[in-house]
Amino acid sequence: MKFLNKIIDKYFRHFGFFYGYVGPRLFIIILLSILVGLLDGFGLALFIPIFEIAADGSDFQSSGSMGELDFLLTFLEDLGFSLSMNSVMVFMIVLFLVKAIFRFIDGYFKIKLQNEFVRNIRYQMVDGLSDLEYKQFLKMDSGRIQNTLSAEALKLTYAFLAYFNSLQHAILLLVYIGLAFLSNYQFAILVSLGGYLSNFIFRYLFKNTEKASIHLSGLGHSFQSYLIQAVHNFKYLKATNYFNNYKSKLKKVVDEIEINQRKIGIYSSIMNSAREPIILTVVAIIILIQVEFLGGTLASIVLSLVFLYRALNYIVTLQGSWQGFISNIGGVVASVELIKEFRINKEIIFSSNEEIKIESLNLEKISFIYPNGAKVLEDVQINMEPLKTYAFVGESGSGKTTLVNLMIGLVHPSEGRILVNGKDRKSIDLLNYRKRFGYITQEPVIFNDTIYNNVTLWASKSPENIDRFQHAIQLASMNQFMNELPDQEDTRLGDNGLLVSGGQKQRISIARELFKDVDVLIFDEATSALDSETERLIQDNIDMLMGRFTIVIIAHRLSTIRKSDVITLMSKGKVVQSGDFEALLSSNPQFKRMVELQEF
Asked: Are 569 and 584 in contact (CB under 8 A)?
C-alpha cells in the first residue's frame, strides 16, 4: 500500500490538482489524444502496402508485414474496395484528415480549459484576498500577495500547457508503443527499454529544476515586497540618500533571481541539445539489433522505423514538456499555498442580506487585546446618537485608531459588545453594516483613473448615478475645481492622485463616501497632512456636513474638533472624560494642556 501511495503521489498528484479545477473534462483531452495517436498510427501503417504495391506494380497481397494491423486492410476490403494503390492511398488520406479534425478539436478544447483554469485560480485568489480577515492581512507579506497574483499567476498558464502537453505526449507514447506491439513486439520492447534508460539521464535535471523554480518564486515575493516599499518610501529614501543603501538590497535579490533563472535555463538547454543525439543513438541501435540479430524484413524494419520515430520523439518531447512544467511549478505551489492561507484566514461573518441603517451605536465595556497579549483598549463605554459629531483625542498609542477599527468592523472586541440600533452586531450582516460607513483617512485613497471613477468606483454613467455623483461633488465642495478642468469629471488624476493637490485628494475621498449614501462618516486624521489653509477648507467641508451625518473625528488639531458635540479624551486605552469643548477645557487639566500646546 505504501508503495502504491508513493507511486500515486509521485506521478499523479499533479493530475489530481488539475482535475480538482477542470473536472471530468480532463478525460476528454485524454480521449482526444488517444484518437489522434491511433489515427496517426493507422495512417502511417498504410505506407507499408503503398510501398509494396509501388514495388510490385499490382494489387496488394497480405504478407504479414503489418502484423496485427492487417485489420485495416481487411476493413477496407469489407467496405468493397480492392487493395489498389488508389484505394489504400485515399483511405490513408481520410485517416489523416480525420486526425487533423480531432487535433484541432483537441487544441481548441485545451486552450478553453486552460483559460478557465487560470481564471478560476485568479478568481479564487482575488476572492480570498477580499474575504481575508483584516488582522490576518496585517501579518502577511504584501510583496508575496502581489507577486503571486501577478507574476506567479502568469506561470500557471505555462504550467497548465506544459502539464497537459506532457500528459498528451505520454498518452501518444503509449499509443505508439501499443501499435508497435501489434506490428512488431520486439521493436516495442526495444523502444520501451530505450525510453526507460533515457529517463535516468533527465531525472537529475527535473529534480533540480523543481527546486530552482520554487526558490525563484520565493525570491520573486521578496523582490516585490522590497519594490513596494521602495515606491512607497521613495521620497524619504531619495531625500536622505538612503536609496543607495536600499538599492543594494534590491540588486542582491535581482542577482539571486538571475542565478536561479540561469540554472533553469541551463537545465532546459541540456534537455534541448540532448534530444537529437538520444533519438539518433537509439534509432541506430534498434536498427542494428533488428537487422543483425532478429532477422527483420525490410517492410517490418520500415514500419518499425516509422513507429520508432514517433515513439522516441514523444519520449524526448515528453521529457522536454515535463521540464517546462517543472520550470513553472513554483507558480503552482505559490498560488495553491496562498489560496490555502486565504481560506484558513477567511473572515467568518454573519450573513442575512438584510439592509440596515445605523441610527445608534453603543460600545459596551469594550476591551481589545492583540494576539501578542498587548491590551490596547480597556473597559471603553461609548454611546453614539444619530446626526451628532463625536471626536476622539489623546496621545499617540491611546487607542483611537483601534477604536475606529472596532467601530467599522475591521476587528472585533476581545471583551464587551457592540450594539447597533440596540442589537448585538454579531447578529447583523457585517458587509451591509460596513456599507453604512464613509471612511476618510490621513492618506487619501486615489486610483489612477478619472474623477468620476474615483468617486463612483466605476459605476456606470446612468442618469441616476450622474445625479448622485453631482450631489456628492457639491457636498464635497468640488464643483468649481472640477468644472474648471478641461475634461471635468473625466480628468485623470495620475498615480495616487499625483496630478492634484492634497486638499483636492481629500475632497475626492469625501465625495466618494458621500456617493455611496452612508450613515456615519469617519475622519481618521484626515487633515493632519495638510497645510493650514487647505485644512481650513476641508474643515469647512466637515462643518457643512455636521447634522447631515453621524460624524466621527480622530484628530490632534483643535480646529478640527472644536464644533464637535461630544469630545472623548483617551489615554492608554481608557476613556478619561467626555464632554463638549468648553466643558473639557474648564474641567480637565490634561485636555487644557493639550489645547495650550496645540497638540491636536
From this structure: yes
First to last CA, the chain: 71
3-state secondary structure of 426: helix
Nine-digit cell string for 314 = 514523444
**227 within 8 A of 250, measured Cβ to Cβ:** yes
d(CA 469, CA 514): 9
Query: Per-residue pLDDT for 58 more than 60?
Result: no
E strand intervals along 421-547:
423-424, 437-440, 520-524
Name all domains of the chain by residue range, CATH numbers in brackets: 9-344 (1.20.1560.10), 386-413+426-597 (3.40.50.300)
CB atoms within 10 A of CB 279: 18
Q: What is residue 503's predicted lDDT score, i.e. its pLDDT?
A: 75
Q: Strand locations in 172-235, DSSP E?
A: none
DSSP assignments along 322-387, one per residue: HHHHHHTHHHHHHHHHHHHHHHHTB--------------EEEEEEEEE-TTS-EEEEEEEEEE-TT
175 Cβ partners below 8 Å, 6+ apart?
33, 34, 37, 38, 41
Pair 502, 418: CB distance under 8 Å: no
d(CA 155, CA 167): 18
Q: How confident is the model at residue 294 (pLDDT cuts 50, 70, 90)?
A: low
Q: What span, in angstroms and rounded, lies between the C-alpha atoms of 47 and 169? A: 23
Distances (CA, A) of 508 to 441, 451, 477, 514: 12, 8, 10, 10
Retrieve residue 270's grid coordinates: 541540456
Can you tell me whether residue 551 is helix, strand or coil? Answer: strand
DSSP tag of 567 = E
Q: Which residues contact 158 (CB under 8 A, 6 or more apart)?
A: 324, 327, 328, 331
Q: What grid cell was written down for 174?
A: 503509449
H/E element holding 550? strand 550-554
DSSP state of 417: E
Q: Evaluate whether 144 touches 225 at the Cβ level (below 8 Å).
A: yes
Cα angle 312-318-321, degrees, rounded to a multiple of 5: 145
With 50 as the cut, is the pLDDT of residue 443 above it?
yes
Task: Name the most confidently modeled range: 462-466, 506-510, 543-547.
Answer: 462-466
29 and 164 in contact (C-beta within 8 Å)? Answer: yes
Give the burial class of 48: count Cβ atoms within 10 A of its Cβ; 0-12 exposed, 13-18 middle, 19 or more buried. buried
Q: How many other CB atoms sit within 10 Å of the CB of residue 447?
A: 17
From residue 187, give the alpha-carbon distance in Å to each of 69, 135, 306: 15, 64, 11
CA 521 – CA 525 distance, rounded (Å): 13
Predicted TM-score of the model (pTM): 0.69
Do β-strands 389-394 and 550-554 pair in parallel, antiparallel, or remain unpaired? parallel
Residue 161 burial (C-beta neighbours within 10 Å; 0-12, 13-18, 19+):
middle
> How many Cβ atoms from other residues are within 10 Å of residue 99's Cβ?
19
Distance CA 509, CA 538 (A): 11
Contact between residue 170 and residue 316 where contact means Cβ atoms under 8 Å apart: no
